[in-house]
Amino acid sequence: MNNLGKASSAAVRALLALALCGSVHALAVPPPRIVIHYDVSYNGLAMAEGTETIQHDDRSYVAESQLRGKGVFSIMQRGAVKRTSRGDITASGLRPLEFRDQRGDRTPEFARFDWTARTVSHERDSERKTSPIGEGTQDRVSFVWNFSFAPPKGQIAAQVVDGRGSTQFRYAIAGRETLKTPAGDMEALHLVKIRDPGDSRETELWLAVQRSYVPVRLLVVEKDGTRVDQVVTRIEP
Question: How many folded domains does the chain comprise?
Fold first, then answer.
């Protein structure tokens, strides 16, 4: 495989991985509808445009994450990567009911939650398997939005599921800092993923403190130094 092919394969994996996350005091939850626009770069090269959208009525929510490749990346990844989460809003945060993962023209994958039985059904192609879940389990989309409804305090630990299985996420709070973005300077809470043995990927997440802790930057650094950086460009409203 030539260098472009290797870069393209790595970029696709990173693109899909993005889909991502002291005590702080809760602020008001986000407006009933908020849209965050991002630019995504691959080693400094424009790679994709993305949006994160949530709509809610204080009782239930629908959140959507979309990425669409630019330039050579739009050729290798046909169509958008679109992930959707819907569920309820509880006193302790988001409680997803269904997660849908649509990658280009492939058959969508699902994770369907049964909170009474405390199980989740993972559905991919014609395969289906069930695994147990605990309180606070999130999906790949609801994980980052949950901070807006339950601001992080100390170390963050969450079981995160999708149509393929379940992963344990752990993040530490690295502190607050001023994040410079195309959307302006923002006071941000900086989270750093705690890596398990054998995990070579570094992941960092920034949340806008004055905007209900919505996600405004996600940085993934692979073992070989490849950097995929998702940075906010505009927030509506």
Answer: 1
